[in-house]
Amino acid sequence: MLDDDSLQLTESYISVAYVNRSRERLSRVRTKFMNVLKTGNLPEHGFSESDIEALLLQLGTLDSNNWDHRVGVGEREGRVLLDLVRRRHFGLSHGIGRSGDIAAIQPKAPGSSLINRLTNQLVLDWLRKSGAPTTAACFLVPMATGMTLTLCLLTLKQRRPSGARFVIWPRIDQKSCFKCILAAGLIPVPVDPYEGSDDPKRAVECRHQLGCDLKRFRQALTRPAAYLLKHWPEAAQRQGITNTDAHKHGPESVVCALTTTLCFSPRVPDRLFAITRACMDHGVAHLVNNAYGVQSPRCMRMIESAGQLVIQKQSGLVTNGTDLSKQCSADDEDAVPAEAGESSIAVKPSTIDLLYVQSTDKNLMVPVGGAIVAGFTTDLVNAVAKSYPGRASASPSVDVLATLLHLGIHGWRELLKTRELCFQRLHSGLQQLADRHGLNVLATPDNPISLAVDLNPLISVSSSNTITSGRIAWHRLTRLGAQLFTQGCSGVRVVLPATAGVVEQLGVYTFPGFGSHSSTSTTAYLNAAAAIGQTEADVDAFLMRLDKVLHQFRRADPDDDTIGERPL
Question: Strand 503-506 to strand 166-170: parallel, antiparallel, or no bridges (unpaired)?
């Protein structure tokens, strides 16, 4: 509304000096936004909230439901009954995409369509500048991470041989990671983790961490039905898998490997380079659950190294006879030689589909409801977008666009620096607290966000040798988590091991020790993480409350069930 012509007319109402000052202010904002549109890149420094709100309101006026002369005679014309709802959405009620493609332009909604396209472009720039510069394309889908992974699995299935139905899944005990496979109608092949490090030089340093067992992973990848029958016999039988299937099904029956970057300690990120290499050896797709990994430069470098491996193959730079482990950079310590008796690469390595998915709420601090699908080939990302049925909500796109415009590159980097400081403060604080209470912080240096404190020393089962009494002692530890939650500490988890009798049923699969990432776990522990948006004051407050809760726990009667209800 206030362009140069209208500003000139205001000179008859206010002095020229005031008009010129206003013109300079508006010109700076306009030039800054024009540069965003021209380059498709995030600004170095973000916009103010008032400027972003003005932009969204102006974009809302472009949609047909906000035209002054509108007459809607269709069944879906962006009508909104309650003005509160209309204002909450800036008048953007048409959503994004069309029935055949979530990324398509919608004729009735040029404002919403522009938001959709611009958001996807800025998210791409954000991912590239966060550590994956060769990412080719991405799009934001208005579903949380679990359902977005299901969408990707269904798309990858269509690109695999008709009989493909297995998903190789290095175990991570977070339910949506597993249920997304079940929701896609596919068969998970869980691979229990390896404890410690296969590098002798890091044996002590990494003694408690759980990572992908590459030997077992390769076994599952090459003979998925046989692996399932051997390690998960009940689940295999209940899904109709027979000994005949064990001999018949090879890598061609695998839809993809579904791996994970960040997770609750002592689990550490999967070894993406080595897994991608194994997938290429057998022509199997690779889907990475990078739910909150964008805030970790290390995880993004791991994804980038895996992507470069795929790109090199596509461009013909990786040829038969090349030792792919040498392609790995100094950040790719996950690249390891093949097992004895297995060639370092397949006779005919092939290019594969590689996607990675991240959550908007976990990485950008917006309300739950969005995830980002990204990949290193545009055709693959477009295939996922076109598989989304119908139109979609524009709310996650509006939230992400506003947040990225407000942050800018400088704001994002400051968040990363603060998160790293919080992690260091949390680690040192937990170590000091553990020393005071006779506990231990588990050695998991490859997890850059989550920490775990061993709670086994708090268990007292000396009064009885019965199994029932022992389990009661284990479960008494969960009161620590309840007390911390009562005191306002959210996100803290107390995890019991398989030896405590913890079992979770997911579909036809029975997971001993669910939550601990392992069927043979023996350690109870408390999890705490330093995620983006956290402050050092948050860390200090948590450590103080945890210290008090531990003191109270030690003083309490072992038979007292009220510890979680007492004020500190």
Answer: unpaired
